[in-house]
User: What shape does this take?
Amino acid sequence: MDWKERIAEAARRVEGHVLRTPVMRTGGFGLDREIDVKLEQLQHTGTFKARGAFNTLLGGPVPQAGIVAASGGNHGAAVAFAAHRLGYPAHIFVPQMAGPSKIALIERTGARLTVVEGEYANAAEAAADYEEASGAMQIHAYDAPATVAGQGTCMAEWEAQGLEADTVLIAVGGGGLIGGALGWLQGRRKVVAVEPVTSCALHAALAAGGPCDVTVSGVAANALGARRIGRICYDLARRHNAQSVLVNDTAITTAQTALWQERRLLVEPAGATALAALMSGAYRPEPGERVAVLLCGANVAPDPLG
Amino acid sequence: MDWKERIAEAARRVEGHVLRTPVMRTGGFGLDREIDVKLEQLQHTGTFKARGAFNTLLGGPVPQAGIVAASGGNHGAAVAFAAHRLGYPAHIFVPQMAGPSKIALIERTGARLTVVEGEYANAAEAAADYEEASGAMQIHAYDAPATVAGQGTCMAEWEAQGLEADTVLIAVGGGGLIGGALGWLQGRRKVVAVEPVTSCALHAALAAGGPCDVTVSGVAANALGARRIGRICYDLARRHNAQSVLVNDTAITTAQTALWQERRLLVEPAGATALAALMSGAYRPEPGERVAVLLCGANVAPDPLG
Assistant: This one.
């Protein structure tokens, strides 16, 4: 199936269920040009992941046992939210590293929640066991066609809002968001994948010639710390020549602080990772190149009003 | 001079100096309808007040001694920011109640800063003394034509962005923002003025038949705690029949929490005050009435990344 068509179909499906998030143009951040920003961190449950969750559930059928998901926090919150809105039971597995503010966010949806020792991969194993035992349907966080197509609606929406950029910078964890963007854009704009040095599954896969395991750590690990890049993302990144750049934790927290201090946008480290590539010089645009940055997550810890 | 023309002129003047802040439509907050929201808290220095500051300074001339302003924090930050951008020296007087996060915001601009014991009115006295002694130009926080016209560009911009609302809710302190909105709209939409019970200078003035002193306190006092409503705002509110409603501190902090938890918009209490009128039922729209809420300030304390 053609990705562009699949994403267009997802966009029709999720309309009215997800928010059309705002866009803005802004200077600042010590950059030599204005940038376009999409405030996708204002989406339901604070990340783009509601798009993939709704697309999957609305594409049904959903079994009697409901939904299961493994998550560093954000995907679980999105699945729990979408399941609740659509009237399905949900059981979410998160690793301890998800942290109290993301765990509280999931709890507020009313979903059943299991906190697992370790990192994302451990939660994924527990979720797989539960899936087999219960007959619940698993929504994969990033490497399933319905998930990627749902996340792709973010870029489709941005273009419908009049995006003028030559280049779009997107943070990468497991690759659902950038996979959807690549699938939608089909090479029509340059896409730059930004990963933390300490959680760089796509970068490692591109170097190795295929998805491979990486160790994950760092300030954005609970959102971007996939141990292995999704196959869908990897194939799309290869096909459309996504450029891959890395940023360190200092660059990420510097960008996070700047987004709050200069623009009053409070995002989590993963949400600031794409901007960090510009601010740190990890990605240096050409003179005249029009650049856009996707802000993808707002679930900071500690919760400022928690 | 005609307010609409004055605001249109201000809009041409401040273009490129202030941000075109984004708008969005969202459900939630326990309301029975979607609302339109303007994210003016993303403006330079976290409030709409940069508009009035730039309009005043760009309308110059500015004396050699530079600029002076008294402020509960937000106006001072905006004036300091605009002065710095345009190359003028600025001296800002704030009361202690401005709080550390607003004081730090002003310090970051590089302006000279004096912290005065007491409330806004005390800072205003100190600023007036300095104005007389130094020959610096004072930019009034709300009751000057150039300030009101600058703030009015916010509503002009919102209409240019396709605002469809019948009714706009706006928080009121000294009345600069709502004065500008009333001057621009000229009765074409219903305007609801929302004030804290404990800082209600407009409400008291409308009841008394003219501006009168009120005591100020409460969670939004450093932003909305004007002791007396501006004459410009009062006259415009009377002429265009602004409806006045009051909300208590619990309603304000409930709305502030909901904006963060449901929509990842972090605003200060003053920034949540307009929404509080809807959530608390202080303002009850008619069936089918299309309602818009202006978010006006993001300078929360404590600073989440301070």
User: Anything to note?
Assistant: The two ends of chain B are 44 Å apart (CA to CA). The longest helix of chain B spans residues 145-160. Chain B has twelve helices and ten strands. Chain B touches chain A through 26 residues (CB under 8 Å).
